[in-house]
Design a protein that fits this description.
Distance between the termini: 81 Å
CATH architecture of the largest domain: 3-Layer(aba) Sandwich
CATH topology of the largest domain: Aldehyde Dehydrogenase, Chain A, domain 1
CATH superfamily of the largest domain: Aldehyde Dehydrogenase, Chain A, domain 1
Largest sheet: 7 strands, mixed
Strand order of the largest sheet: 14-17-18-13-12-19-20
Radius of gyration: 24 Å
Shape: globular
Helix content: 25-40%
Number of domains: 2
Number of helices: 15
CATH class of the largest domain: Alpha Beta
Number of strands: 22
């Protein structure tokens, strides 16, 4: 059995141009279960980021010039290296990220497939032949952009970091990565170790870590530096708006996957046992710290009581506590700031008349699985993404009412529908303002090859499969004239 005790990793420095380099100072990286020191991390500067971008720029011609199958072989070797070291990542996900042991196992097993899926992109069609009015041989072809800046989140530091750059590498770009200051090892420096061990050419992949105090300046450099051609970001909508706006001002591509306020709709003909199980997972997996987490459960009134009875019974069995105990399925929130934020949302709702059906207790960085009813739009929690183990349950009467309740948010990431009637679900799915809809499953679904992303305030662009090619390449129209193009005689 894996030992998930807090054994700190060896921090070699930042990873720039294939070398481990120190920063002028460090910052403390804490284990959120008890706020003990996990590691001391390099606090990179704007100048450190400039050097990393320059290294990626210098590596771009050789990397983009490789044959497609050679890049694929590199990505497959990265996947194999990751698989060999999965236990190291699990320990980091538990101790640095505050994740449940089972969540760490799932995430560690997923990441290698992200790289294998990206390797498959190397064999995708990179262009097409177009008809021409003038008999030209007319083509639309895709080309790598150059240096891609990747800013990754803390909640799924393995999956969401790898997804942010694997496809970019596959199509010939080079990468500079800044992981979250809450998971700088699992989401950043650990990846650098993997790339070095896998033999990725120097400069193709670079990591600069920095503290919360430095993140604004370092992040702006990742967008504004003229050598950077695109930005890949996963995180909060507030930060995503800033990044997308700044990238737009510089006319640079930005693929941003942001927050959600996702609904699970339970219709009267649903399997209620299955619905309760799905709702429990969707609401409380990783303390609700997933962009796809179920934040609102909308239940048709005729099955409301039956559903609540079964849902409450399941949720009451989830144990909350330090992640060094594998039986604690609900670990800490990522930091004290986030725990206080979630507590404030619960307190606001209760003060305005919400009922606490389960949980509600908060201490240190922990929040119990909490189920609220009698919630309305005057409460902050109806509108704000909670990103904690708190879910709202509300009744509805008709399909149209459920659709309106789902769409009553600035977000549009995922929705889920429970029903025995697939035609009914598909009819409703057409009216739901989300980028993804899952029928007879909960909201948290992802696969490396699917078009993952949202609408409205949940993001712009799509990750996954051939849709990632759109995000990380540029189109070029090339024609070969073969004598068919005529010009006016005056010329």
């Amino acid at each position: 059995m894996l030992d998930t005790m807090n054994t700190p990793p060896t921090i070699k420095g930042m990873y720039v141009g294939g070398n481990w380099v120190p920063a002028a100072r460090t910052f403390d990286d804490l284990n959120p279960s008890d706020n003990s020191l996990y590691a001391r991390i390099p606090d990179g500067s704007v100048e450190d980021m400039r050097r990393a971008i320059a290294a990626a720029h210098a590596a771009f011609p050789a990397w983009s010039g490789l044959r497609f199958h050679e890049r694929a072989h590199h990505l497959l070797k990265i996947a194999d290296t990751w698989d060999r070291r999965k236990d190291d990542f699990i320990a980091a996900a538990v101790n640095e990220g505050g994740g449940w042991f089972g969540k760490g196992i799932f995430e560690a097993g997923y990441v290698a497939e992200v790289f294998r899926s990206a390797a498959a992109l190397c064999y995708q069609n990179i262009g097409e032949v177009l008809p021409s009015e003038h008999g030209k041989f007319s083509t639309a072809t895709r080309w790598p952009l150059g240096v891609v800046s990747v800013i990754s989140p803390w909640n799924m530091p393995g999956i969401l970091t790898s997804r942010g750059f694997a496809a970019a590498l596959a199509v010939g770009n080079t990468v500079v990565l800044k992981p979250s200051e809450d998971t700088p090892y699992a989401g950043g420096l650990y990846f650098a170790e993997i790339m070095e061990e896998a033999g990725l050419p120097k400069g193709v992949f670079n990591v600069v870590t920095c503290s919360r105090d430095s993140v604004a300046a370092v992040g702006d450099e990742m967008i504004e530096n003229p050598l950077v051609k695109a930005v890949s970001f996963t995180g909060s909508t507030a930060v995503g708006r800033h990044i997308a706006a700044k990238a737009g001002a510089h006319l640079k591509k930005a693929c941003v996957e942001l927050g959600g306020k996702d609904s699970l709709i339970i219709l009267e003909d649903a399997d209620i046992d299955h619905s309760a199980k799905a709702a429990n997972f969707g609401s409380f997996m990783h303390q609700g710290q997933v962009c796809m987490s179920t934040e609102k459960i909308l239940v048709q009134e005729s099955v409301y009581d039956e559903f609540m009875s079964k849902f409450l019974a399941r949720a009451a069995k989830l144990r909350t506590g330090h992640t060094n105990d594998k039986n604690n399925v609900i670990g800490p929130l990522v930091n004290t700031r986030q725990a206080l934020r979630v507590k404030a949302l619960i307190d606001d709702a209760v003060a305005k008349g919400a009922h606490v059906e389960l949980g509600g207790k908060c201490w240190d960085n922990f929040v119990e699985p909490t189920i609220l009813t009698n919630v309305n739009s005057s409460m902050n929690i109806w509108n704000d993404e909670t990103f904690g183990p708190v879910v709202i349950v509300s009744k509805f009467r008709t399909e149209d009412e459920a659709i309106a309740m789902n769409n009553d948010t600035e977000y549009g990431l995922t929705a889920a529908i429970m029903t025995e009637s697939e035609p009914r679900a598909l009819r409703m799915a057409e009216k739901l303002e989300t980028g993804m809809v899952h029928v007879n499953c909960q909201n948290i679904n992802d696969e490396p090859h699917v078009p993952f992303g949202g609408v409205k305030a949940s993001g712009v662009g799509r990750y996954g499969g051939r849709w990632s090619i759109d995000a990380f390449t540029e189109l070029r129209w090339i024609t070969l004239d073969r004598g068919g193009r005529h010009f006016p005689p005056v010329f």
